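Q: I'm writing a short methods note and want an example of a predicted protein-small molecule complex. Could you take the sequence and the SMILES for (R)-mevalonate and return the bound structure as tokens? Please keep the output block clean; save any remarks for afterwards.
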Amino acid sequence: MVVAIPQTEFKPFLVSAPGKLILFGEHAVVYGKTAIAGSVSMRAYALVTPRSDSKVRLVLPDISVDVQFDTSKLPQLNPSELSHPCEVENHVGCASVPEGPGRMAVLTFVYLFGCLLAQKPTKGFTVCVRSLLPVGAGLGSSASFNVVLAAALLQLSGQLYKDGKSTADRQLINEWAFAGEQVAHGTPSGIDNSVATYGGFLAYTRGQKPQNLNSSNALRVLITNTNVPKSTKALLAGVRSLRDKHPQVIDGVLDTIHSVAISAISLFESQGEDVEEKLQDIIRLNHGMLSTLGVSHLSLERIREITAAHHMASKLTGAGGGGCALTLVPSNASDETVEDVKRMLAHEGFQCYQTTVGGAGVAISHCVGAQPIEEWVRSMLDRQLSLAPSTKSEDAGYGGVVSAFSILPDTAIAKLAP
Ligand SMILES: Nc1ncnc2c1ncn2[C@@H]1O[C@H](COP(=O)(O)OP(=O)(O)OP(=O)(O)O)[C@@H](O)[C@H]1O
Ligand SMILES: C[C@@](O)(CCO)CC(=O)[O-]
Ligand SMILES: [Mg+2]
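A: Understood, no commentary inside the block.
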């Protein structure tokens, strides 16, 4: 049963969740094949603060959204009466949802609010989400956004019993975050929200419990953002239509991608001398298959060329069509070589990130006592960033996040409005 918390009972709280890096198996995972992915150290943060009126406000400075609704105007939704979460479009009623790039994010909020909170009289609150992840670049920014939003609304509805720490809490967060991904993308596999919820390094097959991978091979990975915008929804639809036209051919490609992921699992667990070389091979093979599916881009091919000249294999990661590429850096590559590659990539206008793979999933922290909110947010960000050991706060744009959050509470949040 849903029990909404009266506003006076809740103190501000902060939810965070990581982005993800898919090493092998994107797209094929949508069709029931296995993929391998891990969390990255860059995270999304949702700060939830109470209000004295009955409005709910959603502030998304990263995509220039600042909307406010009267709780009584938002639709009550029963998920079992909608054939798919994306149908929320037909139920927004008189709640005005902006056109443009923020529309999907707001619709997701309306959907989750309508399912989780609208049944009960709910006092007002503000949710502000900021992210250290590049938006729409293949690192799972939508999934971490959906995980923090789902966790925040579940927390407000009184459905989390252990602040998101128990298996049952995480399962619930993951289910609702998946619904959020469905609002935006139609047919996601669930891998992105699973990584953002559980964190770690895992093999994922749709409908099965994710399998934790304990890689004995510490991976050195370079992520390069092409800065070419792409639409995950359109790329998923493109692969679907190709498969509808040529089912046997495309199923063969998807099966090969599955075999690549299965080989990768055994390589991650083995110790042989040739493991790294074989991983480089299957990275190239996996990219070739993705290119066959039509989801590569000239910019991604350029990254492959530059890194190949330094004996490093690269592939697209995430939905493709632009976004990011990952490069496996051989353990014997000198720092000088890596810096050379990074310089050449930067020269082409690409942006490189260095991150570790694997780290904590969703985390919720509450503001307690009389601590000023700005101080508390800063200390929480410090603590939550330290969940991902390799992230240095200054590398990750920490200052930007704090300044967006620090002008909360609500009276000052108007300054964030575009
Ligand atoms: N910081 C954010 N604030 C608000 N909305 C966000 C934020 N980050 C992501 N989103 C939502 O997610 C959308 C981008 O999701 P999309 O799936 O296209 O890219 P991605 O998740 O970064 O890449 P991929 O799915 O390939 O890993 C944005 O248009 C927005 O709706
Ligand atoms: C392209 C895809 O496989 C990964 C997007 O990060 C889509 C999905 O699994 O939902
Ligand atoms: Mg996404």
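A: Remarks, as requested: The pocket of magnesium ion (ligand 3) is lined by residues 140, 142-143, 192, 232 (CB under 6 Å). The two ends are 38 Å apart (CA to CA).
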